Amino acid sequence: MRDSNDTHSPDTAHTLDPAAAADHFRVRPRTIQIWIRDGKLQSYRIGRAHRMTWAEIWACEDGPKPTRKTEARYRLPLMTRAELASRLAISDRTVDRWIADGLPARNVFGLTRFNPVDAEEWLRRRHDPTLPYGFVSEGLA
């Protein structure tokens, strides 16, 4: 955790508060507070409020690091296994089989999460190139 007096503190317009970070990771805000307290997630304190940069958020994700070209995609909220299964009307076990077959996952401190655009692209390549764009990520932005 860094103090707001740190000269490297980012502009708050480009940071996330714990609620936004929780929404991105699909966890409870209390989980974010615990990760900050335990030093797993770096944050800045501005007054009493914690803020995190996208770089600090992505540092927690075990997966491809975003490039300038892919930053917007990786700012989308991640999906849980259950959310992905529900969105596609399949079972959790099917998602598990797809993970074993190479479905890209972003692990966050032991939690398996999926970027919806990565999942769509993988499904198009592996199963059906005619799948419509946005069929997984619709409504997530």
TrEMBL record:
<feature type="region of interest" description="Disordered">
    <location>
        <begin position="1"/>
        <end position="20"/>
    </location>
</feature>
<feature type="compositionally biased region" description="Basic and acidic residues">
    <location>
        <begin position="1"/>
        <end position="11"/>
    </location>
</feature>
<keyword id="KW-0238">DNA-binding</keyword>
<dbReference type="InterPro" id="IPR009061">
    <property type="entry name" value="DNA-bd_dom_put_sf"/>
</dbReference>
<dbReference type="InterPro" id="IPR036388">
    <property type="entry name" value="WH-like_DNA-bd_sf"/>
</dbReference>
<protein>
    <submittedName>
        <fullName>DNA-binding protein</fullName>
    </submittedName>
</protein>
<dbReference type="GO" id="GO:0003677">
    <property type="term" value="F:DNA binding"/>
</dbReference>
